[in-house]
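It is time I had a proper look at our fold encoding. Can you supply me with one protein entry, sequence and fold together? It will help me judge whether the discrete encoding reads sensibly. Leave the record below and I will have a look:
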Amino acid sequence: MFLSAPTKKTFLPSMEAGIALLRDFLPSDSRRLRLRRRPSPAFPRSIRASSSPLYRGPQPKRDLVADWVADNDGFVRSLPIYVGGSSLLAVLFNRTVSGIAPVADASSAQSRADLLTLGLAVTNVLAGLVWLSIRPKPISVVEPLGVECRRIRSDLPESVVSELLWVWESLSTVTCCRSLAIIYDGHCIMQIGMAAKSSANDGEAEDVDANKLMQGSLYQGIINSRAQSYLANLSLYPGRSELPFLPFNTQAVILQPLGDKGVAVIGGDTIRGFTTSDQTWITYIGEKLDAALAKYVNDSSILMQERV
């Protein structure tokens, strides 16, 4: 038996009931949830240090004990004397009050303890005297005694000259450099800063004898090792005589190799004035300067070959 198809009258009420059910289930337009875009964070185009006066990053730790010792250096050095003297007075006061005979008796335990205490007290007093007598020598900036010098080889191109002047300005501004001499390919291409007075007493600066310098042990050691040499206290090194063009009171010197063809002699006005970061930075400057000078030397040799 076949089922007859639903008529239009029976289909419409069921359809209306389904639509009504959906209306009850779904929220109306007034209650419909709306998706909102999350606002993207607005980053400033440029950040300035003055815009955030309060630094909220990690703060360096302070050692309160070390700071207090540094601020009270004299008292800390004399503290063992006070401790040792107080210990001696305490031992004498103890023997006086306790009624023990002032003469030490080896069979008495109290006498042996007092002798040990006296030995420790005397050791403290002697240590305090040593601390007071030995003080680190204060390191101060020394004004180089010499004449101002500014000598640059005339046949250098303007690009190389600007590179050399940039090296000098950078070193003299950031570090304790007061003298600079650059020897490359057997010639002194620049001598700038403070220099020793000429032996002829003509008021001029002492010339850099490149050939004599290249024959010395300092230059040969730098070229062979290709590593920077730091003479932190120049007066203690016998090689000081190989650098007569520097002021005689130059405190520290860095010898920076420029590849295998030259060296930069950097004189400072402070003992141990070049820090570890300064030495590393000077190494990079030497590599940069070596690249510029090597390019100039290669171009010059090519031009000479073409002319020949």
